[in-house]
């Protein structure tokens, strides 16, 4: 008797935030758990397939799939990796302690 294996894939998207470690990386450079795949990027109502290996930018939605629900949490953690502190050369989050020029290049 042959028992068919039932796959319960979980498809979802993760929005790339300002402090994401993946900003500027190509999809192929993002490390994800086994039995998971990145399908592409949703950018401004346009789907860019992973086969085009686009770079990831703030506001992009990375579309991914886990072949079993058990891997969803690990995949979300991998895709939501961020720098521990928000930083930007164009913004300064220190309020009233230093001038606005602290983080701007003159």
Question: What do these coordinates show?
Answer:
By secondary structure, the protein is mainly beta. It has one domain: Regulator of K+ conductance, C-terminal domain (Alpha-Beta Plaits), CATH 3.30.70.1450. 8% of the residues lie in helices and 23% in strands. The protein has one helix spanning 72-79; strands spanning 10-15, 36-43, 46-49, 61-66. The chain has a four-stranded antiparallel β-sheet, covered by helices on one side. The radius of gyration is 18 Å and the shape is globular. Mean pLDDT is 81; it is low at 92-106.
Descriptors for this entry?
106 residues; mainly beta; four-stranded antiparallel β-sheet; 23% strand; globular
Write the layout of secondary structure elements.
Elements: E1 10-15, E2 36-43, E3 46-49, E4 61-66, H1 72-79
Antiparallel strand pairs: 1-4, 2-3, 2-4
């Amino acid at each position: 008797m042959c028992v068919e294996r039932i796959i319960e894939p979980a498809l979802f998207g993760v929005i790339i935030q300002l402090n994401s470690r993946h900003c500027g990386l190509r999809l192929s450079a993002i490390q994800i758990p086994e039995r998971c795949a990145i399908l592409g990027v949703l950018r401004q109502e346009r789907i860019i397939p992973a086969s085009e290996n686009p770079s990831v930018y703030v506001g992009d939605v990375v579309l991914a799939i886990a072949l079993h629900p058990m891997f969803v949490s690990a995949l979300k953690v991998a895709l939501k990796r961020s720098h521990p502190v928000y930083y930007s050369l164009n913004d300064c989050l220190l309020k009233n302690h230093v001038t606005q020029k602290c983080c701007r290049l003159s």
